[in-house]
Write a structure and sequence with these properties.
The chain is mostly beta strands. The chain has two domains: 95 residues, Lipocalin; 108 residues, Beta Barrel (Lipocalin). It has two helices and 16 strands. The strands form two sheets. An eight-stranded antiparallel barrel has the order 1-2-3-4-5-6-7-8.
């Protein structure tokens, strides 16, 4: 092929590849779908997807699942790290068709699901965090990424969720979520669903926080009123 023709075609190919990537992108954020008494919630970042479903009143947790993503054209692929219903359905990966229009998301899954994107709001503790150790930090061994036993906490657009699981066996231990605020060293959780005890829904818990490097020092009293000190480590690559 003549050099001039190569020079002419290169920008076109580059534009086509860029358009394909843009087409395959789902904007990061929290997406909500309310269907009568059931709320369906999607949290998505550049490479991670979480789906949660629960009844609002009376509160009842239904399920959650999530993991690492890739997109191609209008397909979303998810390699699951956790699946609360794994013992019943044995699902380890998802292959979903999706559409994005005006920042609203449609997933073609067990049904056609329409989600509305919530307003973006940035706060101090936004991100993906893995439980590392009990504080204080005296150089003790940490539960790192290589450990299959994980507790993940995701804070995004005023919504939080923690999930305890084993990423290899997909053994699910529990989850809870709702809204949060983190400001001036005070972290507050407002619980909207809790897999272990639906009676906990509606509680508001307040803690102290301090960020040191990639660590979040989380202190205060737990739900039973006992002092606690946890250290969470930023999970790099899920922002």
């Amino acid at each position: 092929m003549a050099p001039k023709k190569i020079q002419f075609l290169f920008p076109i190919l580059l534009f086509a590849c860029s358009a394909l990537l843009l087409q395959a992108q789902i904007p990061s954020g929290v997406y909500i779908s309310d269907n009568e008494n059931v709320r369906q919630e999607v949290k998505i970042s550049d490479d991670y997807f979480i789906y949660s479903e629960y009844e609002v009143s009376p509160p009842k947790f239904i399920r959650t699942l999530g993991g690492f993503t890739e997109t191609y054209k209008d397909k979303l692929f998810v390699l699951l790290e956790f699946n609360s219903n794994y013992t019943n359905d044995s699902i380890r990966k998802l292959d979903l068709m999706f559409n994005v229009e005006d920042e609203n998301l449609q997933l073609h899954w067990f049904d056609t699901l329409d989600f509305k994107k919530l307003r973006t709001k940035n706060q101090d503790l936004d991100g993906h965090w893995l439980f590392a150790t009990r504080g204080p930090d005296n150089g003790q061994e940490r539960r790192g990424e290589r450990n299959t036993r994980k507790t993940l906490k995701v804070l995004q657009d005023v919504h939080f969720q923690w999930i305890a699981y084993d990423s290899e066996s997909l053994d699910f231990k529990g989850t809870g979520g709702g809204s949060f605020s983190s400001e001036n060293g005070i972290y507050t959780e407002n619980i909207e669903y809790f897999s272990r005890d639906n009676a906990r829904v509606g509680a508001s818990l307040k803690f102290n926080y301090k960020i040191e490097g990639d660590d979040w020092h989380h202190t205060g009293n737990n739900s039973k009123g006992k002092p606690m000190y946890e250290i969470w480590a930023k999970r790099i690559g899920n922002e």
